[in-house]
Amino acid sequence: METLQSHGPLTLKEIKALWKRSSVNDEGKELATRTFANHVSAISDIFGIDIACDRSHNTYYIENLDDLCGNSVKEWMLDALCLSSLLNDSAHLRDRIFFENVPSRHKYLADIIQAIRDGKKMEIRYKSYYKTEEEAMIVEPYFLKEFKRRWYLYAYKGDPDGPHMYALDRMTMVDILPDDFTMPEEFTADDYFRNIYGVRVYPNMKRERVLLKAYGKQVLYFRSLPLHTSQQEVETHKDYSIFSYYLTTDYDFRQDVLSFGDGVEVLEPKELRKNMAQIIKRMNVNYKSNKK
Q1: Total domain count, the chain
Q2: Domain hosting residue 48, numbered range
Q3: Structural domain ending residue among the three candidates 165, 192, 219
Q4: Is 35 contained in some domain?
Q5: Is residue 176 in some structural domain?
C-alpha cells in the first residue's frame, strides 16, 4: 500500500523490482506472484482497501484510496504495521529511532478494545485527580481517543449526562463483564467530537470562530500540521498569516496556543483574547517575583 501510494500505478514487474531492492528485504528475495495475491487479499480484509489491476496497462493501483484518507483508525493501523515491519527487519536501527512514551498504551488498552468490539460492559476502578477516593463503576465503553501521549475512554455509566471521559493511566482495574450493551444507532464518535479541541466534552459546550495570527516560521508549521481540522488560512502576508478555526476554546486549546509563545496571537473572539492576556499577565508576575 505504501509503495503504491508513493509511486502511483505499477506493473507487477515494477513492484517486484522495488521489493527486491527494498530496505526491508535484507535477503533480496523475489516476490512470488502468489505472495503478492495473498497480500492484496489481506489488505482488503484488514483495511477494506481494494488494490485493482488496470488491464489496459497491466498496472496495479489503490482503487478506493479515499476510504483510507481521513480514517484515523485505518491510517493508525497502517502506520503501526509499516513501522513494526521496518523495525523487525532493521534491528540495527533500533537505537537510532526514538518514540514518545505513551504511559497508557499498554495499560488495559487491549481489554478495552476487545470490550468495544464485542459490545460488552466493563467494571473499572478509577482514581481521579480531583477525588481522594478510588471509584468503582460499571460502564458501557463507547470509544477511545489518544491525545497528548494519553489514551482516553469515553463510556456511559447510566446517568443522563451521556458518556464520561476516563484516562486509562488513572484506571487501577478493568474487568470485561458478560453483559452485552448496544450503543445508540444515532450516537457517533464523529458527531460527538465535532468541532471539539482536545478531549474534554461537556453538554452544551460552546463552539466559536477563532482567529489566530501566526508570525514568521510558525506559519509554515501551521500549514504543514494544522492545529485543528477546521483550520483555514484566511489572510496571507509577508511576515504573518491569519488562520481561522471553529472549535471549543477550552483549557487544552488555550494551553496549546500559549505553548507557541510570541509566535501566535489570538485576535478573536475578544473574550478569549482578554483571557489569554490575563494568563500571560499572571505568568509575567510569577517570573518577575523573587520566589524560590
Answers
A1: 3
A2: 2-96
A3: 192
A4: yes
A5: yes
Do 53 and 59 form a contact (C-beta atoms < 8 A)?
Answer: yes
Question: Would residue 197 count as lying in a domain?
Answer: no
| CB-side neighbour CA atoms (13 Å) of 239 | 1
Q: How do residues 25-65 score in pLDDT, each as one tens digit?
A: 777 788 899 999 998 998 888 777 889 999 998 999 988 76
Q: Higher pLDDT residue, 225 or 76?
A: 225
Closest CA relative to residue 75, chosen from 165, 146, 151? 146
Q: Containing H/E element for 281?
A: helix 270-288
Residue 136: which residues within 8 A CB-CB, separation 6 or more?
A: 123, 124, 125, 126
Helix (H, G, I), strand (E, B) or coil at 209: strand
Contact 209, 245 (CB under 8 A): yes
The total number of residues written for the chain in this structure:
292
pLDDT tens by residue, 195-237: 888 888 877 788 999 999 999 999 999 999 999 989 999 999 9
Residues of the chain by 3-state class (helix, strand, coil), percent to 5: 40, 25, 35
> Which of 134, 167, 192 is the C-terminal boundary of a domain?
192
Q: Which residue is listed with cell 484506571?
A: 171
Residue 104 lies in a domain: no
